[in-house]
Amino acid sequence: MTTANSSSLHAGRLDLIKRTIAMEPVERVPSIYMGTAFSPRYLGGSLARFCDDAEYSFQVTLDAMDRLGGIDGVNLIVGGRIGPILSTLWLSRVAVPGVELPENSLWQVMEAEVMTQEDYEVVLERGWHAFVKDYLPRVVDPALMTDTFAWIGANARRMAETYVRRGYVVITDGPAAPAPPFESLCGARSMQKFFLDLLRIPKKVEAVMEVVMRDVMADIAAMPSWNGRGVGGVWVGGWRGAPGLLSPRHWDRFVWPYIVEMVRALVAKGYTPVLHFDQDWDRELRRFKELPQGKCLLNPDGMTSMRKFKETAGDSMAVLGDVPSVLLSTGTPESVADYTRNLLALFGNRGLLLCGGCDIPINARPANVEAMLRVLQEHNDRG
């Protein structure tokens, strides 16, 4: 493919994706890839190498996309050591293959109480950023973390340009945004301990969240306004704070107000919040109407009902998904094809970027992934 052809292909795909996110009717449904651990498994590579070799993780993802074919873009660029990246994001220790785990197993969060209740006082006294700086060595080797993010910084532009050159649009192409307070604190405290904190010391937790949120909003305020050249996607996570895990009063108090404030601030700067909302969000789907309409992108994981979403908040934002991981791993090509057809019929050609729910899993059957993409191609060919 010549440079001119790849540039034209990328520009056309970018326009299609942006119009889809804006909830405009489009001539075809875009296909988006996210298969972090699936990529090396699909190509017969090593998971241990994928986690340790930054360049390999970048190249094998692109090669998997090329082999599958029919893909317009990717949720986010994969490249760098997965362990330090996830530990920094989740504030939890992460065991990786080839070190703590067998070579071709999936990385795992080591759920444990690393942040203590006494650390709440440190946050209140010193602020969130100061606490995190001293906290991170508890969950990730400082040398590995420094090396990982130095590599990403040195190669970010090259990686982005490579995607453009190969015609792929990156959805989450904006700068990294901080996680909502609930997710950071729950990852550091562990789910068991943090959920007990919500019951036993709710006022203390709320006070700490307000301190965290001040630094989160300061970080967003410091982000430059989006230049408008790409999607402007910024990942906003919601996994431990899903409605399926919390009572309505706890969710209303400790989760949703902070997400709304973050999302509105990002949209005001021209960004597209990519709402990576794992777990079950059915109970609160109506609340999505409180977010800027046609400005966000819902990225669920197969546990939220797409039919209920479409009925309740289907005009509020587009969906990046949502063929469930369990179906891709345990289903048949026929069952995946049926699900994909039904999903396409539900959305039509408005508000859907077809993708595996959350992430195509490590044990997804290649024939199932290929069936999903084949059905999409048939749908688009029919117009």
Per DSSP E runs of 2 or more residues, the count of β-strands stands at: 10
Number of helices: 17
Taking the alpha carbons of the first and last residues, their distance comes to 26 Å
Structural class: alpha/beta
Provide mean pLDDT, rounded. Answer: 96
Question: Could you describe the 3D structure shown?
Answer:
There is one protein chain. This protein is α/β, with parallel strands linked by helices and 383 residues long. Helices cover 53% and strands 9% of the residues. It contains 17 helices and ten strands. It has helices at 3-21, 38-42, 47-52, 54-68, 82-90, 117-126, 128-135, 142-165, 181-189, 191-200, 202-222, 248-254, 256-268, 306-313, 325-330, 333-347, 366-382, and strands at residues 32-33, 73-74, 94-95, 108-109, 169-170, 233-238, 272-277, 297-298, 318-323, 352-356. A five-stranded parallel beta sheet has the order 6-7-8-9-10. Helix 14 links the parallel strand 8 (297-298) and strand 9. The longest helix is centred in the middle third of the chain and has 24 residues, at 142-165. It is globular. The mean pLDDT is 96.
Keywords:
alpha/beta; 383 residues; 10 strands; five-stranded parallel β-sheet; globular; three-stranded parallel β-sheet; single chain
